[in-house]
């Protein structure tokens, strides 16, 4: 009887990094003979590689950003735990009493966790509890207790620094889908307010990950969900959302235009673009906003690009293109909208004929307009993961003047073939991640009526995407 084959576990980059970090941390102590040799006396007599290795195993993560944050938290935990453990040693002979030591162990653990939570470093709690317990349980007495405590702190710090160094030297180049599960644990209370994204389909959306990451970082009592809503059912969903007490929701295709007449009030951009992607529900009323255009301008600003007075070539004439083109025109740019269906390009340009001009999508037209532009923006789905389409000819990129930036609204993959070809020709490139993040920040500001540091949130979101 044949037994089914059992697949062998995969040895990934995280495993390799951990092994390398442990070997390096161990090897650092050997040339100096630091292997817990009490005859050396003082701190050196208590020093060895064990806790450095433990720190490496605890802290080595899949990305440098994760390791850095974990490392800082562990260092804080070492400081808090070391201070608590060392201070407790001042009790001296009283620590020899079994029940008193048991009580003290509980108290230092509570104190370590409380202090770390007080400074909003929950991942520091482990070291803040472990270190004082190790110091108190060893049985080391007298002044040697203090040497022991100092040695444990030094070893742990060495291990954390090794983990940071190894992770920087061995970056993880795997596709994002292969990097393991992302922590999406969210604490819910009876007071927690609900937000969500609606669409059809919507299961692919990264909005819940992005928004819950920001909400957790900001300590706001909200949870962000994903809600499929079929085409044509926005009115029904809006009534349900109000009844269920939602604070608001984002909308993706195909609902952005359908929501416009359902709003009690629209902001200027929603009226300008004729689409709503952010809805705030307050006092029974629905307030509609559009963050697409402003999010795009902010993403350009992050890249040091000012569109005022520039000639911009935009590829595509869909909903995203309309938002981008109208906001670019509002910012003082002269925009050429290139699209295979010229009537769609004309429909966008009719909103501002002074600043917007239609063009076709033939190689000749793309080459002509490319030679004139100061900025190229792709708003088509060409090159998107699973979209199944690609530019047939990249020769129009050869007509771009040196230094012209190329921006693609696509963020998956992180580098489309368009961006790769542009970079190959020496152009500065950026993908749609900046737009995605800035849209999310703007939406959350509307939902929570809280000012948000966009630069700080970008760092946090970059680490989870």
List keywords for this structure.
Rossmann fold; 465 residues; 12 strands; 6-stranded mixed beta sheet; 16 helices; 6-stranded parallel beta sheet; elongated; 46% helix; 3 domains; alpha/beta
> Which structural class do the helices and strands define?
alpha/beta
Residues in helix, %:
40-55%
- Profile the largest sheet: 6 strands, mixed
Q: How many domains would you count in the coordinates? A: 3
Strand % is 5-15%
What number is the mean pLDDT?
84
Task: Walk me through the topology.
Layout: H1 13-29, H2 50-59, H3 64-88, H4 98-118, H5 125-137, H6 144-169, E1 193-199, H7 207-218, E2 222-228, H8 234-243, E3 246-251, E4 265-266, H9 268-273, E5 278-282, E6 285-289, H10 292-302, E7 311-315, H11 319-330, E8 334-338, H12 342-349, E9 356-359, H13 363-370, E10 375-378, E11 406-408, H14 417-424, E12 429-430, H15 433-448, H16 454-464
Helix pairs in contact: 1-2, 1-6, 2-6, 3-4, 3-5, 3-6, 4-5, 5-6, 7-15, 7-16, 10-11, 10-15, 15-16
Describe the fold and architecture.
With 465 residues, the protein is an alpha/beta fold. It has 3 domains: 13-169; 193-293, 3-Layer(aba) Sandwich (Rossmann fold), CATH 3.40.50; 304-427, Rossmann fold, CATH 3.40.50. It is 46% helix and 12% strand. The strands form 2 sheets. The protein has a 6-stranded mixed beta sheet with strand order 2-1-3-5-6-4, with helices on both faces. The chain has a 6-stranded parallel beta sheet with strand order 9-8-7-10-11-12, with helices on both faces. Strand 5 and strand 6 (285-289) form a beta hairpin. Helix 1 packs antiparallel against helix 2, helix 3 (64-88) crosses helix 4 and helix 5 (125-137) packs antiparallel against helix 6. The radius of gyration is 28 Å and the shape is elongated. The protein starts with 12 loop residues before the first helix and ends with a helix. 40% of the residues are buried.
């Amino acid at each position: 009887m044949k037994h089914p084959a059992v697949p062998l576990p995969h040895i990934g980059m995280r495993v390799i990094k951990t092994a390398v970090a442990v070997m390096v941390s161990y090897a650092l102590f050997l040339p100096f003979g630091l292997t817990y040799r009490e005859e050396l006396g003082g701190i050196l007599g208590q020093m060895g590689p064990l806790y450095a290795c433990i720190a490496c195993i605890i802290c080595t993560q899949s990305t440098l950003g994760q390791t850095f944050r974990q490392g800082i938290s562990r260092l804080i935990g070492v400081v808090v735990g070391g201070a608590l453990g060392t201070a407790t040693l001042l009790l001296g002979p009283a620590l020899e009493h079994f029940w008193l030591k048991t009580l003290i162990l509980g108290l230092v653990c509570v104190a370590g966790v409380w202090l770390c939570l007080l400074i909003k470093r929950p991942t520091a709690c482990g070291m803040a509890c472990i270190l004082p317990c190790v110091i108190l349980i060893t049985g080391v007495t007298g002044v040697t207790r203090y040497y022991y405590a100092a040695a444990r702190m030094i070893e742990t710090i060495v291990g954390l620094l090794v983990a940071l160094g190894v992770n920087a030297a061995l970056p993880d180049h795997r596709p994002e889908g292969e990097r393991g599960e992302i922590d999406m644990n969210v604490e819910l209370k009876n007071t927690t307010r609900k937000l969500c994204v609606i669409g059809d389909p919507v299961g692919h959306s990264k909005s819940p990950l992005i928004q819950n990451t920001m909400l957790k970082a900001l300590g706001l009592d909200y949870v962000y969900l994903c809600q499929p809503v079929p085409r044509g059912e926005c009115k029904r969903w809006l009534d349900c959302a109000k009844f269920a007490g939602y604070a608001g929701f984002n909308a993706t295709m195909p609902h952005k235009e359908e929501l416009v007449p359902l709003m009690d009030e629209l902001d200027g951009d929603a009226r300008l673009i004729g689409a709503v992607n952010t809805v705030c529900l307050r006092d029974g009323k629905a307030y509609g906003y559009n963050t697409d255009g402003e999010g795009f301008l902010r993403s350009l600003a992050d890249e040091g690009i000012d569109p005022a007075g520039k000639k911009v070539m935009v590829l595509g004439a869909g909903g995203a293109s309309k938002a981008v083109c109208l906001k670019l025109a509002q910012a003082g740019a002269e925009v050429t909208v290139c699209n295979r269906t010229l009537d769609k390009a004309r429909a966008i340009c009719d909103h501002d004929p002074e600043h917007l001009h239609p063009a076709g999508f033939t190689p000749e037209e793309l080459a002509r307009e490319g030679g004139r532009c100061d900025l190229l923006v792709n708003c088509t789905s060409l090159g998107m993961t699973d979209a199944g389409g690609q530019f047939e000819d990249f020769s129009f990129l050869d007509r771009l003047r040196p230094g012209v930036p190329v921006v693609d609204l696509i963020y998956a993959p992180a580098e489309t073939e368009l961006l790769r070809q542009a970079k190959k020709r020496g152009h500065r490139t950026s993908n749609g991640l900046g737009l995605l993040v800035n849209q999310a920040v703007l939406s959350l500001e509307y939902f929570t009526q809280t000012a948000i540091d966009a630069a700080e949130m970008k760092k946090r979101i970059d680490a989870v995407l």
